[in-house]
Amino acid sequence: MSKLYKKIIIFLFYLIMTLPLLKPNISSIAVIIFTIFSIPAIYKSKFKIKDLRKYLFLTIPFFLFLFHEVFSKSFNEKTVLLGVPFLVFPLIIFFKPYFITIKNILKSLVVFQISTLLQCIIYLVVFLKSNHIIRLLDISNENIPFFREFVTANYLKEMHPTYFSSFLLFSITISLFNYSKNRVLHTINFSLSIFFILLFSSRVIIIIMLLTLFSFIILSLNKRIEKKIYKTLIFVVISLSFLYVFKLDVVNKRFIEIKNHINKPIVGNYYNSTNTRVAIYKCNVFLMEKLPFWGYGDSLQKELNDCYEETNDSNFYKLNIYNTHNYYFHMLLYGGWIYLLIFFIFLFYLFIKIKSTLLYLFIFIQFILVNLTENYLSRHYGVFLFCYFTAIFIFINEQRNTRIKQI
């Protein structure tokens, strides 16, 4: 293999992790191009087929969706295509070209972080071209951050604010555990990522971020940190975060909304993110109580809309699509109790495989928590990143365990 060919393949591999900058179709094309160009190198790579079974387990969610669609009355190819990353990424990582090393895989995480920061800067430029900087922290009467609403509506590609905020959350976590490797990059990334999480003001992400920072401090107190200044810096940032984050209107009003509106039903045009979610979760429970053995399949959204119509004096559900906003409810209502059980077994398997490395464990738990309030794995950006991370984390742990056994 020529050096040029190897460099092209490695470049295409890194391109996959520019996900925050790409539209869904472009990111999918990046994966396809990498796969096609890698075929000559794959033929020269040596694989132990017996090791493939460890990765085939990661493909289970894909086959769950495929099975349900094949044996349902109406085959929905969108549902199957959405689950393709569960199939593709384990195979890509297992059959990757032999010259893509663990070092390259770890560098792809840095590519992801830099891409996320670049996307933040682009969002900021788009905003400042039409608005004064003092409007960054504005919030509407409906408790929606102005920055969040503006960039979502005026940028070339639409990405749900919670999903982009999750990118920032994962990026912060990577910086926490890799700070000593590049202090300048991780300091900049840490500061800017927290700032933009506050601007987007996704409540679940803010809560998970604070839990992450707090947990990291607790762990670091029991271990030696290379530089005392690192511990001091993190401690100060976390203290300030806890003291001031909830005093900002852009954040404060979002959480006050929960207290003031959680018990107020949706009536006509009176609805917000809080009472809308309450209405959604009530319908989740309602549908669960009369759940068919194999779930509702692709008629789930229709069942939800019928429930919204029957239980609320409003047509809010006609203005936007409101799914279960909880991926575990989604699996249950889509495929029944058996599907939910299999999915939990799948998650437990992942936990066993990555629990020995704190960075991977932190990110895995963050995925678990985000899925409590979002159908995170039902959107391209969520399932794409989840499948990539879990595949590379398991690969790295498997390689390290193999080396330890050989020693």
UniProtKB/TrEMBL annotation:
Xref: PANTHER family: LIPOPOLYSACCHARIDE BIOSYNTHESIS PROTEIN PA4999-RELATED, TEICHURONIC ACID BIOSYNTHESIS PROTEIN TUAE
Record flagged with keyword Transmembrane helix: yes
Keyword Cell membrane: no
Keywords, comma-separated and alphabetical: Membrane, Transmembrane, Transmembrane helix
Listed name of the protein: O-antigen ligase-related domain-containing protein
Transmembrane region(s): 12-43, 55-72, 79-99, 105-128, 162-180, 192-217, 229-246, 327-350, 357-373, 379-396
InterPro entries: O-antigen_ligase-rel_domated (IPR007016), WaaL-like (IPR051533)
GO terms under cellular component: membrane
Cellular compartment(s): Membrane
Membrane topology note: Multi-pass membrane protein
Residues annotated as domain O-antigen ligase-related: 190-344
Main location: membrane
